[in-house]
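Q: Here's a chain of 245 amino acids. Please give me its 3D structure as C-alpha cells.
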Amino acid sequence: MPGIRTARTSRTRLLAAVAAAALAALTLTACNDDAADAGGKGTSANSPAPTAPPAASAPAPAPAPATGAPAATGAPAQTGSPASAKPSAKAPAAPKPPSPADGKAVTCEGSVTKTVAAPLTRPVNHLLLTVTNTGSAPCYLYGYPAVRFGEAQSVPPVIEDSKPQAVVTLKPGESGYASVNLSATDGSGAHGRTETSLAVYFHGPSGNESVGAGSNPSLPAKGLYIDDSLKVSYWQQSMDDAVTS
C-alpha cells in the first residue's frame, strides 16, 4: 500500500515541522526574557545612557514686604558702623565764663592777695600795710583798708587828703600800700590800749561794703598801742605815698 504509507510520512513530517516551529518560538521567548533580566541588573551596550536628575529649581523669592517695613535679607542686620566710616565730629564745647586765669581784672581781696603789717619808726606810731597780688590776673584795690584791731566793732576813719587820683591796680606779683596812724604822738588820744590781733577787709567798687575774704596779718608779739586817734590812708600805688599820707 504505497499511497497509505506516503500519506503517513507526509503527516509525520508536518507534525515534526509544527513541533520545530513551536520549539523555536519558545526558545526566542526565553532569550528575550533573559535579556530583559540582564538589563535590570546592568547596562547593556545597546541600552540608552542614564540621564542626570533634573537640577533643583531655585526657591521662589519671598514676597515683597509691606510699605514702610524693611526688606528681609538672608544676612543679619548690621548694627555697628563700618570700620571704614569716619567718626562724627564732636559738638563744640560751651565757652567758659571769664576767670582770673583768663587775665580779666578782679577785685583785690584775701583769697588773691597776701597782706603784711609792719610797724614804722618814721613816722612814729604808724603801721604800714603791704598787699601783694598772689593771683594770676590783675586786681583792683578800691578805697581804703577796713581794719579791725582786737574785738573792735567799727573801723577807723580814712584820711581824706590821701585819696589817689586813680584806683590802684596790681598786676600779678605787684604790691599796694596803706598806712595806719595808730595813736597821737603827743599822748592826747583817749582810750589807749594794746592790741595783739588785726583783721583787714577790702572794699568793692562802691566803696561802701567789704567783699571777698579778709586777711589776718601778724602783729608783733608785744602788740601795738592804739587810741581813739586811729586813722588809715587810702590804698596807694607806691610806698612813699602811703608813708607820707
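Q: Can you summarize the key feature?
A: The radius of gyration is 63 Å.
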